[in-house]
Amino acid sequence: MNSQLDARRAIESMRSGVPSGPAVRSLGSGQEPLDARFSELLDTSAAATAQGKQVRGLMFRAGFGEGKSHLLTCFEHTALDSGFAVSRVVISKETPLQVPGKLLAAAAESLRVPNRVGRGLEEIGASLQQRFESLEFRELAQYLAREDGLNSRFAATLHLYEKAAAQNEELGDRILRFWSGDKLNVADLKRDLRELGDAVGFRLEPVRARIPAQPTRPGSSTFKPRSVTI
Question: CA 95, CA 98: separation in Å to the nearest integer?
Fold first, then answer.
């Protein structure tokens, strides 16, 4: 504990049954095998991404009141301490798994980044303006520009954010809202690119708003996630 205030917060959170950062850091998860597995996935994720490989996930299950939220909070602190951005998204009728736009918006809304206070994407956007010449920013731009990368809207908006957002606050705000899951007016985007003389460099392909579930055919190969009961 860093202070008496943290200790008091931990005690009050345990009384109410709601996990908090101070309580989690003090108590730990009590699930050492899962802690070790999660830390291993974090350690290997950067190398896997650099090699173009998909990073494997981790699934676990438990009954009501058996520690799922506490364990997730432990994972969040572990990831933040390791330099990762973190979001917690609850799948529900309002945030269905098959609607990527709503998932992105929910993830952006709850995004947290290490050692910063405030909404995650706003903090990231502000820090980007100090890192346009960095190797990491150039690698990000190159990844987005590849044909097998994300939709070209991301490369186009990152380019605009670098070249014009500092001088155009409204444009920077529109880009941050798009990165947070809002819809993007393609006509406005094309106009902004034309003003920079870069409209030809981005093809702005259409986006599907919904990914339908794929039925499983007899004999077809399906992904079977590994689950761990706690």
Answer: 9
Smallest CA-to-CA distance from 153 within 222, 112, 208, 87 is with 208
pLDDT digits (tens, 9 = 90+) for 42-100: 888 877 777 777 777 888 888 887 778 878 888 888 888 888 889 888 889 989 888 88
Please say whether the beta carbons of 34 and 18 come within 8 A. no
User: Which of helix, strand or coil describes residue 117?
Assistant: coil
Which tokens sit at 182? 């809002």
The SS3 call for residue 57 is coil
Q: What is the pLDDT of residues 20-48, one digit of tens each?
A: 666 666 666 677 888 888 888 888 887 77
Q: Are 3 and 11 in contact (CB under 8 A)?
A: no
Query: CA-to-CA distance for 73 and 229, rounded, in angstroms?
Result: 17
Which stretches does DSSP call E strand in the chain?
Answer: 59-61, 227-229
Query: Which tokens is 180 given?
Result: 């947070």
Using DSSP, state whether 208 is helix, strand or coil.
coil
| Token pair for 45 | 């994720």
Contacts of 63 (CB under 8 A, 6+ apart): none
Among candidates 120, 138, 11, which has minimal Cα distance to 76?
A: 120
pTM tops 0.70, yes or no:
no
